[in-house]
Design a protein that fits this description.
The chain has 611 residues and is α/β, with parallel strands linked by helices. Among the domains are: 72 residues, no CATH class; 88 residues, Outer Surface Protein A, domain 3, CATH 3.90.930. Helices cover 42% and strands 14% of the residues. The strands form five sheets. Strands 10-9-8-11-12 form a five-stranded parallel β-sheet, with helices on both faces. Strands 1-2-6-7 form a four-stranded antiparallel β-sheet, with no helix packed on it.
Length: 611
């Protein structure tokens, strides 16, 4: 089909093509090489070229087979990327490969390379529309969005093999489930069950929704003691080819591994990814605030930070309170922000979604990256943005008749950030300390590390994190620094991915003896007696915070009013579960998932009491 379109339309052959793709076309008659990628860069395509030839691959490591390709991490360009440092700026930086001498074909672009003289011509075949539709009402936007979203999901849910779905319990993946369930009989969904997803409610909402929709839900357990081995982490970094590898990427990689082991015929995974970036998903989260004006104020702050990065001299003026200088030249900061999100998804979101899935022989399918959906939200006029783009209202209203209100109105929760962040960060700290700081020492010994990294400062900072009971964002920044060193090391002597062990596949709650789809009564009967396991303590401090410790190590922190805390404070090893619930005034459904996790981790045990 693509060859036919190219012959008919030349470089306009992708104008009406939808979906995800990366292509290489050799036009022998014209002596041209045609390279192209889809509008969002979902599918990767990299190349290295010199005066004599060009080498291409869908993986960076594939280019290293060619001796002419440099095998070096690009420290300078990587450290200059604001995204890597989590800088709160509005930047539309071009995607970088992280490696010297290697480029990626830009999204929504056709590269035409003349093989006779080596000249390269760029043809941009898609741009996000800029002109607002002033005459369209909010209701019309919502109806259009609902129609296109359903069409996109159904297209993504079409396959001649089994598909699964990552279900977080948030509005994005839940919307995909609601629209896809009718087409996919016997659909299996997969949810991360960790300390963080217990605290933020994701695991419980995912389980509840799956039960309501009548689909299977596998709660994949990441216990408080779980830490990947240094070898497994090196494998993850080498698979994904990015220093951005962190908890989110790790959890998704492990979910894919579990899904493929549990369902060997599964070949595709539906995702709710990339909805936030274009639907106003971060409008409530950037710098706090409770309305659209607060969000715009956050964007002004980010724009100022961007200008100070570009023009350091402005820092002195603004530091003295001299607010005489305008920010960016455009009056539409929100549009500039969306453009920066478009750049971000290419460098981070679709980059890791494709690789973590492909690592298990699975194809990631992303319904929210149908360009028709993005075009709808792009042309919403300023007067309707507070109505439709504050906290993803356009999506919530588009699926309000398809999902229970409990899900539609649920506040957005990041994959692992929030009140449960320290669970993920503790894993990273323990990982970096493992095997006498193996990963840190490898990173410091890597080519180029001595020029850019301060080993003493890194070791000191890691010591400050202790055993990891912290939610300091510096943990993830330090992990990225270590990842850069690991990539520099592996680029020099590329290992075979199959030679690096990924470790054991995670287990599900059901595999640990908890039937995920059983009725509550069969899990924790009222007559059973709960007790804290040996070595487990529930303690409080003078400020009123509560901690669950195992062998002297803090594993969970509970805030006042937490229903699980209410139950645990009445657990004494003698009182029946039914009486504990009555004394605490808590409904069993509120704490079911938390208690399941504690039982899987053997922090809470149930014994048979008197009937």
């Amino acid at each position: 089909m693509l060859l036919y379109l190219y012959r008919q339309h030349g470089l306009d052959f992708l104008k009406d093509v939808r979906g995800m793709f990366a292509l290489i076309l050799w036009d022998r008659a014209r002596g041209q090489l045609i390279l192209a990628r889809d509008r969002f860069g979902i599918k990767p395509l990299y190349y290295h070229r010199d005066d004599r030839r060009i080498t291409l691959s869908s993986e960076i490591k594939g280019l290293f087979v060619d001796p002419a390709t440099p095998r070096a991490f690009d420290w300078a360009r990587s450290l200059d990327l604001p995204l890597l440092a989590a800088s709160p700026t509005i930047e539309s930086s071009a995607t970088i490969s992280w490696f010297e001498g290697i480029e990626s074909v830009p999204a929504a672009t056709i590269l035409r390379i003349d093989l006779r003289d080596g000249r390269t011509h760029r043809h941009r075949y898609w741009e996000m529309p800029a002109e607002a539709e002033e005459g369209t009402s909010a209701e019309q936007f919502i109806r259009r969005y609902a129609d296109v979203l359903e069409e996109s999901v159904l297209e993504c849910a079409t396959a001649d093999t089994e598909l699964g779905l990552f279900l977080s319990g948030g509005i994005d993946s839940s919307a995909v489930l609601a629209l896809a369930a009718s087409r996919l009989d016997g659909l299996h969904t997969f949810t991360a069950m960790s300390g963080g997803t217990q605290v933020n409610g994701d695991a419980e909402h995912a389980r509840w929704l799956a039960g309501t929709m009548g689909v299977h839900n596998h709660q994949v357990v990441f216990g408080p003691d779980h830490v990947p081995t240094p070898e497994a982490w090196r494998r993850l970094v080498w698979l994904t080819e990015t220093p951005m590898a962190g908890p989110e990427i790790y959890y998704k990689h492990e979910l894919h591994r579990f899904a493929r082991a549990e369902r060997p015929e599964l070949r595709g995974m539906l995702l709710g990814a990339a909805s936030d970036e274009f639907n106003g998903g971060y409008s409530r989260d950037l710098l706090g605030g409770d309305d659209w004006d607060s969000f715009l104020e956050s964007l002004r702050y980010m724009d100022r930070a961007t200008q100070m990065d570009r023009h350091p001299g402005l820092r002195r003026w603004w530091a003295e309170g001299n607010d005489f200088f305008a920010g960016r030249t455009t009056d539409d900061l929100y549009r500039a922000y969306v453009d920066s999100e478009y750049a971000k998804i290419q460098q981070y979101n679709v980059w890791h979604e494709d690789r973590t899935a492909a690592g298990s022989g699975t194809e990631a399918r992303v319904p929210f990256l149908d360009h028709r959906l993005v075009e709808i939200t792009a042309v919403i006029p300023e007067r309707l943005r507070p109505r439709l783009l504050w906290d993803k209202q356009i999506l919530r209203e588009a699926v309000s008749g398809r999902l229970p209100d409990r899900i539609v109105n649920r506040a957005k929760g990041p994959f692992f950030y929030g009140s449960g962040t320290w669970h993920a960060y503790r894993m990273l700290v323990r990982l970096m300390r493992a095997n006498d700081f193996e990963l840190v020492e490898r990173a410091l010994a890597a080519p180029g590390a001595d020029r850019y990294l301060d080993g003493t400062a890194i070791r000191t900072r890691l010591a400050e994190f202790g055993t990891g009971e912290t939610d300091a964002p510096g943990v993830e920044m330090l992990m990225r620094v270590v990842n850069m060193g690991l990539l520099a090391e592996m680029a020099t002597a590329p290992p075979r991915l199959g030679e690096l062990s990924a470790g054991a596949v995670r287990i599900s709650a059901a595999s640990a003896g908890l039937p995920a789809e059983a009725e509550p009564a069969s899990r924790h009967a009222a007559h059973q007696v709960p007790a804290l396991a040996d070595g487990v303590q529930l303690l409080t401090d003078t400020r009123g915070a509560w901690f669950l410790l195992h062998e002297g190590q803090i594993e969970y922190v509970f805030e006042e009013g937490n229903p699980t805390l209410g139950v645990l404070t009445h657990v004494d090893g003698e009182t029946s579960f039914g009486e504990v619930l009555e004394k605490s005034g808590v409904d069993e459904a509120e704490v079911r998932t938390d208690l399941d996790l504690l039982r899987v981790q053997q922090r809470l045990v149930f014994s048979e009491g008197a009937d």
